[in-house]
Structures are given as structure tokens and as C-alpha cells.
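User: Hey, my collaborator sent me this sequence without any context and asked if I could get a structure. I don't really work with proteins. Can you help?
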Amino acid sequence: MTALTSSLWRQPATGTRRLISVASGKGGVGKTWLAITLAHALARMGKRVLLFDGDLGLANVDVQIGLKPMRDLGAVLAGRLPLKAAALPVENCGFDIVAGSSGSGSLALLPAVRIQRLVDDLMALAATYDHAIVDVGAGLDRTVRFLAGCTDTCLVVTTDEPTALTDAYAFMKVMRADRAPTDMGVVVNMAASERAGERTHATLAKACESFLRFTPALFGLVRRDGRVAEAIRAQTPLLTRHPSADAAVDIEALARRLIAAGGAGGR
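Assistant: No problem. I've predicted the 3D structure and written it out in C-alpha cell form, which is a compact way to encode the shape of the chain:
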């Protein structure tokens, strides 16, 4: 990882699900929407949750939920305020957000020492919450891998599209090559049905078993639901606009699994 070597990995606490990254390897699979909705679901379950938008150049977490942040990650990176001061409450959702800063450049262009300082600050801030969700950028660059690798759990989001599966596999391959200590698992998004989602996971898991000697768990699947796109267009979280939608029910099941698996919700 060039200057960001495996010696800098933060070692996740065994069995925890406090710090969760959401990655994809490519765009267009609903990664950011899933990160937002998972943060909202955890908050509705009584957890203190932080959502960190780690995709600085193409940040759109705030856009999807109709938030106009007065402070964002761009100001932190420019040295105008500390990271904890950039955490803002999302009205009526119960979680906090550190918004990105669209068009201000990519985190990948930052010097390694600055990225390390940002991660250290994020670790300190995350410790004040029950869960912190990190929406990392799409792709395989060193900063995406480093952010994902410093979390307890990495949810790799894919769909049944061949390119999505190929890129999810590529992401897990480079993370394994980096020896990242994070616990990686798969979330199948926009599944036609539960059975179809399981088949998608099985296809990806078989490739990982054959070539990486690693079997990623199926952490959850989210059924295709037209109300997701409608909520995004309305810039309103799905759990606010359509709390009983199939996709909302599936995200809540994922949240419950993460809580049950890690015990990271209690302080």
C-alpha cells in the first residue's frame, strides 16, 4: 500500500461490530444508500450512530438525505476545524453525519501522513458512538483500502450484474493481499428475491473459495424495491418515507445481525 503499510493497520477488537465500512469495488450498486439506511436503522434501534462520508471527491450522502451541511470533511482536511466539530445531527433520523465535500478532490491525493492522521481522528470520534458507518469511495485505490481495512467489519456491496460481482471480487482480492484485518462479508443489493440473492452470494463465494481460499459470509440481502429510488428522488431516508418497504425490512434485518454478531452496541 505504498506508504500506508500493513504495519499501520488498526487492529479491530475481536468480535466487535462498532466500526463498519461499506465498500463496493464499483459505483452503481447502492453502496451509499445502504450506508445511510443502515445508519438510520441502527439509530432507530436505540444506538448512537455516526455516518462518515469517506468519498470526498464524489460525496453524496448529504444529497441523498436532503442535508445542507454548514461544516464538512473538506473543512477538516483544510485544517479549519477538528473532525469532531464536523459531526452534525441529521434531523429526525437520530444519527450524526460527517459530510464529504463534493468536487474538492479525492482522498486518494492526500499524503499518507495526512490520511493516517484523519484515520486516527476518526477512530477517536468513533469511540464515542455505539456504531460508526464509513461509506468508503468506490474503487481500489490505497485510501479506500486503508479506510476499509481499519474497520472492524467491511460490508462489500454487490448486485447480480457480472461487472458488480467482478469488482466485488477484485476488492476482496486486494484487501486479502494487503492482509487487512477487517472481517469482510457480502451484502447483495437489489436482489430479485431472497433465493436470487443467495445465488448471487454463492457465485461470489465460490470464486473467493477457488482463488483466494476465503469464504465471505452473506451478511444480508436487500430486495429490489422501487420505493428506494422514489425516496432518493425525494431526498428522504427510506425508513422515514416507507418504513414498511421490503428494502427497509431487509436493512433492519442486517442491522439486527450486526448487533447480535458483535455486541458492539452496548457501552
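In plain terms: Residues 13-261 form a domain with the Rossmann fold fold (CATH 3.40.50.300). You can pass these C-alpha cells on to your collaborator as they are.
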